[in-house]
Amino acid sequence: MTPYDAQTALNAIHHRQEQTLSEYMRYSRPYVIISALGLFAVCSSFDLPSPWNTAAVLTGNCLTLGGLFVQQRRAPVRRKVVGSEALFYAAIGVLLLALFWTVAIAAYFLSLPARHTLAAAVTALAAVVASYALRPVVETIIRRNGHG
Hints:
Largest sheet: none
């Protein structure tokens, strides 16, 4: 094997890795909306009376977990999440939870009706915006860990 052949093979490998990363990032887009709807259903359930709040929590969890399951099963590219990526996702989850309670408390002090529903809508919208805005950060984390 000549040095040119080795470099050509290495370039082909890097090209396939980029294609894999692009496909992985592109495929997750539709499931963001399903997860946001599930998040909204669970968070807004605090404003519902007793039998309906349980139904909203179950529906929201089914949407979120069902969407995640379908996404993982139908994904053309499968990969394991590494520690730094999981830590990043956990930090985003904590920030979304803090946003939810901040908006709910602010709505309480402003005497707004259905404060949890308002906070759920703001949080779900923030989750969708964050998923698109932080996509380059996620790509960087994946590349840094040698998976892209």
